[in-house]
Amino acid sequence: MQSEILLRWIVLVPLLGAVVNGLLNRRLAKRVSGFIACAAIGVSFGLSVVVFLRLTGMDAEARVVNDILGTWLQIGGFHVDIGFAMDPLSAVMALVVTGVGFLIHIYSLGYMAHDDGFQRYFAYLNLFVFAMMTLVLGENLVMLFVGWEGVGLCSYLLIGFWFNDQANASAGKKAFIVNRIGDFGFLIGLFLIGANLLPHLAPGEGVFSFAILQHHAHLLAPAATGICLLLFLGATGKSAQIPLYIWLPDAMAGPTPVSALIHAATMVTAGVYMIARLNFLFVLSPTAMAVVAAVGAVTAIFAATIALTQNDIKKVLAYSTVSQLGYMMLACGVGAFTVGIFHLMTHAFFKALLFLGSGSVIHAMSNEQDMRVMGGLRSKLPVTYATFMTATLAIAGVFPLAGFFSKDEILWKAWESGNTVLWAIGFLAAGLTAFYMMRLVVLTFFGENRASSEVRSHIHESPATMTGPLVILAVLSVVGGWIGWPHFMGGGAWFENWLAPVFAVGEHGVAAHGAVAHHAADSTMEWTLAVVSVLWAVLGLILGWFVYYRRAAIADSFRKAGGGFVYRVLLNKYYVDEAYDAAFIRPGYRFSRQVLWKSVDAGLIDGLLVNGSALVVYLLGSVLRLFQNGMIRFYAWTFTIGVAVFVLYLSFSS
Amino acid sequence: MEITLTHYLVLAGLVFLTGMVGFVVRRNALVMLMCIELMLCAVNIVFAAFSRLHGDAGGHVFVLMNFAVAASEAAIGLAILVEIYRRRRTVNVDDLKTLME
Q1: Residue from A374, A262, A269, A360 nearest A312 by CA
Q2: CATH number of the domain located at residue range(s) B28-93 in this protein
């Protein structure tokens, strides 16, 4: 079959799965339901691979497959197609989403086996993959936006999956509302693009089509800063950057495989994908790029420090995700879009693995998430431990695991951009990452088990449906980075070459703006930084191990340092939620209550408009009522007197 | 004594006044209907008088038409009254104010 036709089925097959599971719901046996869901994603993954292989057979410059299903909107010169396109960038994303998604579907079979909402869960999960594939394969920005909203919806549904618990439902709402703020910016950005570009286009040219946008990007140059900053606001919502990251840690209320798939591996990377996709636009505005880089760097270190103190195993991973997303943003901000996507991919492997591993731990610990009552699980959960450790080393950036290649490359690009502050922040955050990950591993897997004896007696390794994906992801976490083996180490940097056509304009654009201070002809500096960062990561790991395993007293002294102030601030996440509460929510609530409700609604609308008009009619009626009293003789009198007055008037007026 | 227009008009005025006062002060619906007839009658006298004065038959035509109107009005009014009396056992208009509320 032609690649064009295959493309739509990559997107539609998961939708089909979602519809079947969603409509039949409990009428399906769990085994059937799970099979349908996994098969749908499996087919989608298989088709992605097929199209990907066909892409590899094409000329580097012509690597794109389009599948236009039809015209969606045609209003005057405004034209939007329903269509999908796969180029090298989308191909990477599609493979990651369906590949990791497939593994997590398999894992979910085991994890959700005893849940009542099994079918509903898989319907949502399939729907999510459908939305995510629309997002990455959408041929234009509007399709991307449809997917963008779709994944937001699925995220909401899955965070609040166990909606019987008020806290979960609230977490879902928080995610949805915070994302709305970002989407607001995104939408305004879209409008601006349309308004600026539409007058220059020939009829029938899709204004939001990526190809058209790229071709006419120079026309947007005057408005680029505004557009890019608004789009970036959308990205901060979806990709959990400062200031809109607050929903992601709360999103851990959902089932753990969901955290792995949506809130670590795929959906939260949508913002990074969007910026990389629009690289030709972002490079037009050095200001916007600088903002992206700065926000990314600050988020990276900010979230890493919070992760140091959290006690909930999933919260640590959540802040770790925020921090790693910051790295990706940093990479995009310094113009290294390829590396941002590279880190996105490797991160999808090891972070999905970390979450699934934590899911396995939580499963074993009878749904306990607090690390303070874990410990000593190494011998009880050998597979989980081994894979978890692999992922930890990978995220810390130990050579030659996946995380090393991408993270080191990001730090190198930050250094190369000439902004050593960005590099220093990223470097510091890398050390913190290694440290808090080791803390997590030690608290969970080493030492004595601190759980109650009842929980302890139930600890067991997870079934094969769960450990299988763990092992596969662990392999990917090791070898996944090798496709980006850099030149200076004698590698082919295949990943970079693969994406080069997509980012040709973007990365060239940064060079043209002079953001790249110098091209390192010799690789000495690169070698030095790589070695330093590996040593730094190892140091972080050793310190973490030493402090939390060997000398717990040191950890205590950390807590008490500065009168316990630092620890308290970190434990309470810098009081950001409280600050937002005081700055936005309470004033908003007060404004709604005092002004909108009590003044505008109760006073103006109810009082003046509704009751006021009623009062006028009432008063008028009470006067008129006097005349309509049912007394015929009164009517007769009035009538007579009226006629008399009228006659007298006529007599005297002439 | 010659009977002039003035006599006719005075007579018509008196008849009309009788009807009007009767209509206003009496409570019996039957009497009120009769008073209406009186007022119509007064108007007919005026029509006839002026018709004679101007030698124009138009006034007579109006009188004839008024007969028809008065007859139908009396027939309908009486029919309603009879029906009201059957239901309420009264034709006192002060008691007939159900429509007020």
Answers
A1: A374
A2: 1.10.287.3510
